[in-house]
Amino acid sequence: MKWVEEDPRDQTVIRDLRETLLEEIKLQRLDPDPFRKTAPRDEVYLGGAIRLGVMPHHGFMYGIDIISLIRHLLVMGQTGGGKTTVIKNLLLQILQVADAPRIMILERKQEFTELLAKYPEFNVLDVNHLSFNPLLPPEGIKTEVWIGVFTECMINYLDILEASSGFLMDHALRLIDIRKKEGTYPNLNDLLSFIKATKYSPMSKNGQQQQTVINRLTNLLHSLPGMFNTSRHIGISELLNDHCLILLHDVPHIGIQNFLISLLMAQMFLHRKVTAGLQGGLKNLIVIDEASSLFRRQDELKGHPSFISDVVRTARGYGIGLIAASQLSTDLSHSLLANTNTRMMVGGFGRSRDTDEFLRLRSCTPDLRDYVIRHPVIGKAFIADNRWPHIVECNMDNPALSPRLTPDELNQRIQDSFFRMATFAPPVPAEGPKQPVSPKPTPEPETVSLEIRTLNSMYEHHFVKLSERAKQLKVPSSTLKKKIDELQSNGLILIHKVHGRSGAPRDLYELTESGCRMISLPPKKMKGKGSYLHCFYQKCTANWFKSKGYHVDIEGTALGKNIDLIARKQPSGECVAVEIELNSSANPSHVVENLKKAANTDFIDRILCLVPKEPERRVVEKLVTKAGLRKRKPIEIERLWKYMES
Ligand SMILES: Nc1ncnc2c1ncn2[C@@H]1O[C@H](COP(=O)(O)OP(=O)(O)OP(=O)(O)O)[C@@H](O)[C@H]1O
Ligand SMILES: [Mg+2]
Q1: What are the residue boundaries of the Helicase HerA central domain, all occurrences included (predicted)?
Q2: 26 and 80 in a common domain
Q3: Which of 84, 87, 90 to mutate to test the pocket of ligand 1 (most atoms within 8 A of CB)?
């Protein structure tokens, strides 16, 4: 400053000064505070074949190489921060690379389905089609070892006390032993029946463990019906050799999702370990959302090694890499945090323990901590990348995506994938030497495909008119009619004629047990509550009440029990409980029980019991009078047809 004062009008001095200042500003741009020590001066360090975004302040690109994913990528940040977006961007680029690793997306929230439209080679599996036998060891793995892993997955994620692990393992191994002598191999269904059939005193330790295990297996049966299927099987090599997206959003409980994910990961890992051994290169990439519920710190604190931690630590040796997303970092297992090459915080955690946890991964200055806390912006990432000693800042790209598949297209993809991947009979493992891998099924001719599509459509929608269904299946009505006749004569479906209040009878389609087996779905109940006919009448009666200005709850609750319909009229508030009894003559005491619970419920004003035919009406009339139910509430007993929509 001193020399400026010497001659303030001297232009050369001012020019010099400006240049020095510009130089200073430029330097600051390259090294802005608080990133003076952290931003790379040279673009080469943090570039890569896959571009993820741009580092602000100096405009360098941030990218990674596919091979680095073998040491895993973890994307953390609060909800809506852009985690999924980063991963989608990455996957889109990987899919364009020749010889890309096979991608398995374990999809909890239907966020990745946008990738499907553009990549027809992506297989899609949903819960009903995940038919692999979890008791079956991966090729080359001893049964005892595998049952140990299976048990651990059950204990960890299905809320079973560790004390029950011995019980579970013991029963599984005993059953496998018995079946092996008969030349077969048990499935989860067999295990459930086996455990149910063993007698223990209910108050004994074994009895209590038995009850817990039965409850968990029954829950699994309802949540993962495909796993109890004995006619179809998807082998682990099919899952490893293709891109696939596994839709988990229909699995009701995150614990069950994690049970399934941990089983799949264990299968993949062990299969690779035995068949390929140590190898270079990234062969499979597994994408997992909500990672903190799967890789849990609490499991590491139990004091014994957990299988999933081992997978995280050693998977790279077998060509398996992970991409995980999580809304938390404090609950994540140390093994994941420590074994991850690239960790990002996208969209910020704000001022929280998670921020501190993330920053602790690279020792950070208080300045940097403040800076990070002040920038919780969607799409902005702070990245701990093993190639650079300090945390870097990056504005992530938001790629344009092709439109999602329509629900019909998605269903079609699910069915096609299943037929591509599943083999008809589940394999039985041989003792000792390796099993030959079961051959892929020959592609099914178009006619079979229509059969399967029709069955699937009827399984979901049993009242759809012929012309409407033909439109959905994209075939002429006459072709579909022929197919339906064929299905009926082959005993795969039953057609009921249901009479409405007026007009011609409508067709109601029901899949027989062999029909369900054909499409590998669990049979639906034929009689009573939950059956096709019951649902049908429930719907029709609900429509009748709605047309009369009632608000209707299907499966409403009274005294903790379900009532088929609860109809409320506004504004009077009159409340009618409707029970539909299709088998009143076969099970009269059940009818009385059902009506009693409605009669004992305060808010219900009157009860309507609907039965199919006149003789049944008379039977119920007598039962109600005998039980004295009318002393509590007015009860009408009527024929169903009166309440059918016209
Ligand atoms: N880099 C980005 N630039 C602009 N917008 C973005 C960027 N990343 C994400 N977004 C937008 O933010 C929204 C949320 O992103 P995303 O679904 O990826 O968040 P998330 O972290 O996965 O959330 P969640 O934890 O709920 O799954 C999206 O609508 C997306 O378009
Ligand atoms: Mg997300």
Answers
A1: 62-134
A2: no
A3: 84
The whole-number pLDDT of residue 31 equals 44
pLDDT at 314: 87
CA of 404 to the centre of ligand 1 (A): 17
Determine the pLDDT at residue 505.
64
- Retrieve residue 167's tokens: 């019980």
Name the domain boundary from 285, 318, 340: 340
| Mean pLDDT of the region 141-162 | 89
Query: Is residue 437 in a domain?
Result: no
Query: For 392, phi and psi rounded to 5 degrees?
Result: -115, 155
User: Residues with Cβ within 6 A of ligand 1?
Assistant: 77, 79-85, 327, 347, 378-379, 396-398
pLDDT, tens digit, for every residue of 111-130?
898 899 889 889 999 988 88
Residue 426 corresponds to which tokens in the numbers above? Answer: 């589940």
More confident residue, 277 or 310: 310
Atom of ligand 1 nearest to the CA of 397: 1
Half-sphere exposure of 224 (CA within 13 A, CB side): 28
Residues 6+ apart with CB under 8 A from 24: none
Burial class, 474, CB count within 10 angstroms (exposed 0-12 / middle 13-18 / buried 19+): exposed
Q: How many CB atoms lie within 10 A of CB 125?
A: 24
Q: Does the pLDDT value for residue 67 go beyond 70? A: yes
Instruction: Output the domain CATH number for residue 458.
Output: 1.10.10.10
Nearest to 340 by CA among 291, 404, 284: 291
Q: What gap in Å lies between CA 598 and CA 632, rounded to an integer?
A: 10
Task: Name the residue with the closest Cα to ligand 1, atom 15.
Answer: 82
Average pLDDT over residues 582-590: 78
Give 84 Cα–ligand 1 centroid separation in angstroms: 6
Q: Among residues of the chain, what percentage have pLDDT more than 90?
A: 30
Residues 284 and 213 in one domain: yes
Show the domain range for 519: 447-524
Three-state secondary-structure class, residue 146: helix
Q: Are residues 144 and 236 in the same domain?
A: yes
Closest ligand to residue 105's CA: 2
Query: 599 and 510, same structural domain?
Result: no
**Length of the chain as a residue count:** 646
Q: How confident is the model at residue 504 (pLDDT cuts 50, 70, 90)?
A: low
pLDDT score of 585 more than 50: yes
Is there a single domain that holds both residue 566 and residue 505?
A: no
Closest CA to 165 of 188, 148, 179, 180: 148
CATH code of the domain in which 198 resides: 3.40.50
Q: Which ligand lies nearest to the CA atom of residue 81 in the structure?
A: 1
* pLDDT tens profile 347-380: 999 899 999 999 988 778 888 888 899 889 999 9
**Domain termination residue (choose one: 472, 501, 524):** 524
Supply angle C-alpha 259, 342, 60, rounded to 5.
145
Query: Average model confidence (pLDDT) for the chain?
Result: 83
Ligand 1, closest atom to CA 85?
18
Q: Which atom of ligand 1 is found nearest the CA of 88? A: 18
Residue 572 lies in a domain: yes
Number of domains in the chain: 4
Same domain, 620 and 484: no
439 or 41: which leads in pLDDT: 41
Distance (Å, whole) CA 142 – CA 595: 55
Pocket test for ligand 1, best of 78, 378, 401 (most atoms within 8 A of CB): 378
- 616-639 per-position pLDDT tens digit: 888 889 888 888 888 888 999 998
Ligand 2 center to residue 285 CA distance, Å?
18
Task: Tell me: pLDDT of 598 over 70.
Answer: yes
